[in-house]
Write a structure and sequence with these properties.
Radius of gyration: 17 Å
CATH class: Alpha Beta
Oligomer: single chain
Order of helices and strands: HHEEHEEEEH
GO molecular function: isomerase activity
Strand content: 35-45%
Structural class: alpha+beta
Helix content: 25-40%
InterPro entries: NTF2-like_dom_sf, SnoaL-like
CATH topology: Nuclear Transport Factor 2, Chain: A
Largest sheet: 6 strands, mixed
Protein name: Ketosteroid isomerase homolog
Strand order of the largest sheet: 2-1-6-5-4-3
Pfam family, one: SnoaL_3
Keywords: Isomerase
Length: 153
């Protein structure tokens, strides 16, 4: 039987991950991923990217994203946590609002919304729950015609 505390701790680790990305806190992001002997086993798939393997490659991707994203905010919905022994899986929908660099200094660039379904896998360590794998896939929006059952162009 899963301890309520385990679920709460995994939820807290998952929330800390998204908040660190929002703040652009590379040090915190680094501390949330597995390291040591398991560093080569971590993986990450950002929407539209190939699979990234190993701690160096994964953390470089976050540095690149943060360097090229002026603003990002996550609104997580449909969050589900499952814990089995020393492994936990979190699935959720990332409702993302982001913006790139502005054309003029001192202004925010255009904001873009995106839906991504994500799976975050955590491992229990002596220092708490750490991310083992992150996989995000874009949600393709249906057109109004598809929603109404009309498939004519």
């Amino acid at each position: 039987m899963t301890s309520r505390t385990d679920v709460e701790n995994v939820e807290a680790a998952n929330t800390a991950f998204y908040e660190a990305v929002e703040r652009g806190d590379f040090e915190e992001i680094s501390g949330l991923w597995l390291d040591g002997a398991e560093a080569d086993d971590i993986s990450c798939v950002h929407p539209g990217w190939p699979v990234l393997s190993g701690r160096g490659e994964v953390l470089r991707s976050y540095a690149l994203i943060m360097a090229n994203t002026e603003y990002i905010q996550f609104f997580l919905t449909d969050v589900r946590v499952s814990v089995s022994g020393d492994t936990a899986v979190v699935t959720c929908t990332e409702n993302i609002l982001s913006g790139g660099p502005a054309e003029e200094a001192g202004e925010l660039g255009p904001l873009v919304g995106q839906l991504v379904v994500a799976t975050n896998v955590f491992r229990r360590t002596p220092d708490g729950w750490r991310i083992w794998s992150h996989h995000g896939s874009p949600v393709l929006a249906e057109s109004e015609d598809e929603e109404d059952g009309d498939s004519t162009p």
